Amino acid sequence: MTPAQPNQSIITGFIVLQEVVTANVPLGSRELARRLDLEHSKVNRVLGTLVHTGMLQQDASRKYSVGPGIHALSAQSLHASGLIPASLDPLSELQKLGATVALGVVWRESVVYLLHADPHMDLASTAGAHETFPVRESVIGMALGATEAVVRWDRTEANQVAWAAAIGTPRVAAIAAVYPSDNAYARNTEGMNATVAATARRIEANLRSGTRPGAKDGGAREAGVMPEPAVRTTPGGRK
User: Fold this and answer.
1) How far is CA 63 from CA 32, 56, 201, 213, in A?
2) Is 107 helix (H, G, I), strand (E, B) or coil?
3) Where in the chain are all domains bearing CATH 3.30.450.40?
4) pTM of the entire predicted model
5) Residue spans of alpha helices (H) in 83-219
6) Does an H or E element contain 122, and which?
7) What distance in Å separates the CA atoms of residue 106 and residue 170, rounded to the nearest whole number?
8) pLDDT at 217
9) What CATH number labels 8-72?
10) Partners of residue 102 on adjacent β-strands
11) pLDDT in the model for residue 2
């Protein structure tokens, strides 16, 4: 919901901060102003404030990069939301079935991945490590913009099938499970629809209860939702 009179100074501050955070290299004020098509004097004022608060820092060449404040804010916000710990066990069960799994949110026109792991990767170690993708190139972006509980995307050019389901009301994040097209689970559309929906519900329940990894939470496998590998074939997303 857009406020009647959004504070443009705060909006500009977030835009400048995000540009520095996602640049991966220090940026000067003039370069930032050029990239964002903003007045240099305005960008300078915002940068000064962000340095003062510790969100950014300035080096000897007068370029700006991420400051300690942004790391503190990131850690505090992830701890407060509980989204990553609530998702680890449920998504790990999908990994065991051969899925590449992901947890992501939409920010502006991009999907930002909080978790993203291939079947044999340690899921927790991937927190925040994956690059962003445009909303239209991600099944998570599709799920967060859809009305259906679960969406399926056949990526025939990549020989993959992806499922995704949103988390929360209103929808604040989404999960994805991506299988090779020849994986037995990928051929069980009805079963995977139920499994991904159940996984999203588990995460929502974990968020409500504060359940952390390793706790018994009545998982999808225990509930008998996980599909059997021997299934009939149905016709064939980036996560």
Assistant:
1) 10, 10, 45, 40
2) strand
3) 82-209
4) 0.79
5) 83-96, 139-145, 189-209
6) none
7) 13
8) 52
9) 1.10.10.10
10) 116, 176
11) 62
Q: Which residues of 85-122 are buried (b: 16+ CB within 10 A; e: fewer)?
A: bbbbbbbbbbbebbbbbbbbbbeeebbbbbbbbebeee
**What percentage of the chain exceeds 90 in pLDDT?**
66
**Which part of the chain has CATH 1.10.10.10?**
8-72
* Preceding amide of 119 cis, omega within 30: no
In the predicted model, is pLDDT for residue 210 greater than 90? no
Average pLDDT of the chain to the nearest whole number: 87
CA dist 12 and 4 (Å) reads 17
CATH superfamily of 82-209: GAF domain (3.30.450.40)
Asked if pLDDT for residue 37 goes beyond 80, the answer is: yes
- pLDDT, one tens digit per residue, over 130-151 is 888 898 999 999 999 999 999 9
Taking the chain, what is the end-to-end CA distance rounded to the nearest angstrom? 27
Residue 230 is classified by DSSP as S
Task: Return the residue matching tokens 């099944």.
Answer: 139
Is residue 135 within 8 Å of 107, Cβ to Cβ?
A: no
Please tell me what DSSP assigns to residue 27. Answer: B
CA distances, 107 to each of 45, 111, 170 (Å): 24, 6, 15
Q: Which two tokens stand for residue 82?
A: 């509980």
Please tell me the distance from the alpha carbon of residue 23 to that of residue 4, in angstroms, as a whole number: 32
Distance CA 162, CA 192 (A): 10
The one-character DSSP state at 52 is H
- H helices of the chain, in order, are 8-23, 29-36, 40-52, 68-81, 83-96, 139-145, 189-209
